[in-house]
């Protein structure tokens, strides 16, 4: 299976997870952590509204669950697949967790910290750098967000 095919399949899982945020009014962002063999370890979707927790982003929840599943905080060799380009908080968490690869769907021109506004995960001043694949299923990821915001703004 090629990287592109693998990333699209994983993004499909992340999109399914993103839709799980809709019933509780959270922005539909979903994330999946894959182990080094490409097997899903953990998922997460935004739960800020549900839990009244400003840090309950899909990426952070998926990282926490993956670390719990592995029993270690270092997610060396793992990949995070997420439907939206991570913000600065989540990008920093990817570096801290030693994620090997980030795959994201839609670019975020307002808050993206991986390509759009900053490049936190590849900053040479930090102790770890993350490989990045952006724009995977960007149309589908972006449409889910556009539909959500059309009814919430």
SSE layout and pairings?
Layout: H1 3-19, E1 30-34, E2 40-45, H2 48-51, H3 58-70, E3 79-84, H4 88-96, E4 101-106, E5 131-133, H5 138-152
Parallel strand pairs: 3-4, 4-5
Antiparallel strand pairs: 1-2, 1-3
What is the compact description of this entry?
By secondary structure, the protein is an alpha/beta fold.
Strand order of the largest sheet: 2-1-3-4-5
Largest sheet: 5 strands, mixed
SSE string: HEEHHEHEEH
Give Rg in angstroms.
14 Å
Tell how many strands the DSSP assignment holds: 5
Task: Categorize the overall geometry.
Answer: globular
Q: Output the structural class.
A: alpha/beta
Q: Report strand %.
A: 15-25%
Mean pLDDT, as a whole number? 96
The end-to-end distance, rounded to whole angstroms, is 41 Å
Total number of helices = 5
- Poorly predicted ranges (pLDDT <50, ≥5 residues)? none
Percentage of helical residues? Answer: 25-40%
Structural description of this entry:
The chain has 153 residues and is α/β, with parallel strands linked by helices. 38% of the residues lie in helices and 17% in strands. It has helices at residues 3-19, 48-51, 58-70, 88-96, 138-152; strands spanning 30-34, 40-45, 79-84, 101-106, 131-133. Strands 2-1-3-4-5 form a five-stranded mixed sheet. Helix 4 links the parallel strand 3 and strand 4. The longest helix is centred in the first third of the chain and has 17 residues, at 3-19. It is globular, with a radius of gyration of 14 Å.
Top keywords for this entry?
single chain; 153 residues; alpha/beta; 5 helices; 17% strand; globular
